[in-house]
Design brief:
- The C terminus is likely disordered.
- The chain is globular, with a radius of gyration of 23 Å.
- The chain is α/β, with parallel strands linked by helices and 428 residues long.
- The N and C termini lie far apart (61 Å).
- The strands form 4 sheets. The protein has an 8-stranded mixed beta sheet, sandwiched between helices. A 6-stranded antiparallel beta sheet has the order 14-15-13-16-18-17.
- The chain has a domain of 171 residues: Carbamate kinase (3-Layer(aba) Sandwich), CATH 3.40.1160.10.
- It is built from 12 helices and 18 strands.
- The chain binds aspartic acid and magnesium ion (MG).
Length: 428
């Protein structure tokens, strides 16, 4: 018998009525002959509300206690979802991470899953029940309650799907699937039918919030297809799956925006071997997230300016750490800029099609938007721009790659072929 993991996000559980709807979906799947494991997030804005409450109570809440508080949100959801299934005349059981044996490391608020025990879930499924699991939470070997990071109910779901060898992991949300850009900012954005794990992982890493990026790693590693779809309709959503022939034809598949960023510059860093290593070892030791790093050398190689971007939420910690390092290593000054955002384009076809970067820069130029920094990887090009320019930047770039067109293959023509390929006759 095949197994379905179905994950419901906060908005899809925001009211009792919506919880009933999720319950009906699970029951229907079970009546179609599948075993069902439901993974749920906290209802509506519960997690944000709890964080606010914590901050109102204590300016720097201990992370252990934050985890203790935040995991209550998911515990409310599992109980209510089980009740809704019972109310409809079917059997279900709710389980916390501790009850099922989802073990993580001890890094409170950003724990990583180490192992998941199947025993309890298998026993409950064998008793013909729908099993309802609290997303986002774990337990460490000492029995402490942990959380996996914001948005990580997705990760609970795909990790369970992997361990249980599920046929599919369905992620129910309040939009129809994964879009070529955030439809709230780019109204012409188009729903994508199929996307590879790699592209989705990159899109999530550079700003797409529809799925948690670590969740996709599990899908990829264990080859579990992830179906992102709307909880209010029966429409097909987006399949996140292994790369297929043809997928790499599309040069750019999506554009994203990351607004919650800050850049940190260390100016007049003595340019001697080992300095960058010492700086970033210290930054990492303090768990400050490092996004892109840039370094320029000046004054005949005597000094360097070294900068990196980080989450806006980490900026206080980052500043403190960097000022300490600056004092220790004789670095000139530390500068923080909280007014930046990152616009990225992502696509497998970038591996083989050149001209993507120039199309992107050209679009930003036409929008009269200054690029403060550029970084590239195999399938991503990112530009740092001012935050106030960012939504317009996203719309111009989306438009330049014609991502609103139904056939993504079209946007190849928007870009020049790679140098040396047969169709590149124009020497510059
Ligand atoms: N409730 C958690 C959060 O808001 C986990 C999740 O929704 O995925 O971050
Ligand atoms: Mg989410």
């Amino acid at each position: 018998m095949s197994l379905y993991v179905q994950k419901f996000g906060g908005t899809s559980l925001a009211t009792a009525e919506r919880i009933h709807r999720a319950a009906r979906r699970a029951i229907r799947t079970k009546l179609e002959g599948h075993r069902v494991v439901l993974v749920v997030s906290a209802m509506g804005h519960t997690t944000n509300d709890l964080i606010e409450l914590a901050r109102a109570t204590c300016s720097h809440p201990p992370k252990r206690e934050l985890d203790m508080l935040l995991t209550t949100g998911e515990q409310v959801s599992i109980a209510l979802a089980a009740m809704a299934i019972h109310a409809a005349g079917h059997e279900a059981i709710s389980l916390t991470a501790a009850q099922l044996g989802l073990v993580t490391d001890s890094a409170h608020t950003r724990a990583r899953i180490q192992r998941i025990s199947r025993d309890r879930i298998d026993r409950e499924l064998a008793a013909d029940k729908i099993v309802i699991v609290a997303g986002f939470q774990g337990i460490d070997v000492g029995g402490e309650i942990t959380t996996l990071g914001r948005g990580a109910s997705d990760t609970t779901a795909t990790a369970l799907a992997a361990v249980l060898a599920a046929e599919v992991c369905e992620v129910y949300t309040d939009v129809d699937g994964v879009y070529t850009a955030d439809p709230w900012i780019v109204p012409q954005a188009r729903k994508i039918d199929r996307i590879s794990y790699d592209v989705m992982m990159e899109m999530a890493a550079v700003g797409a919030t529809v799925m948690h990026s670590r969740a996709i790693e599990f899908g990829k590693k264990f080859n579990v297809p992830i179906h992102v779809r709307n909880s209010l309709t029966d429409a097909k959503g987006t399949m996140i799956m292994a790369e297929e022939p043809g997928m790499e034809q599309i040069s750019v598949e999506g554009v994203t925006l990351k607004e919650d960023l800050a850049t940190i510059s260390l100016n007049a860093v003595p340019n001697t071997p080992g300095i960058a290593g010492r700086i970033f070892a210290e930054v990492a030791r303090n768990h400050v997230l490092v996004d892109d790093i840039v370094q320029n050398v000046y004054d005949g190689g005597k000094y360097a300016n070294l900068g990196f971007s980080t989450n806006a939420g980490d900026v206080l910690e980052a500043r403190a750490v960097c000022e300490r390092i600056a004092a220790d290593l004789g670095i000139g000054s530390v500068e923080i800029d909280e007014g930046v955002a990152k616009v990225s384009v992502i696509g497998l076809g970038m591996r083989t099609h050149a001209g993507i970067a120039s199309t992107m820069f050209d679009a930003l130029a036409r929008a009269q938007i200054n690029i403060e920094n550029i970084s590239t990887s195999e399938i991503v090009i990112s530009c740092i721009v001012r935050q106030e320019d960012a939504p317009r930047a996203l719309r111009f770039v989306h438009d330049a790659f014609e991502l609103d067109k139904t056939d993504g293959a079209d946007n190849i023509q928007a870009c020049a072929p790679k140098e040396g390929s047969e169709a590149s006759p124009t020497p510059s």
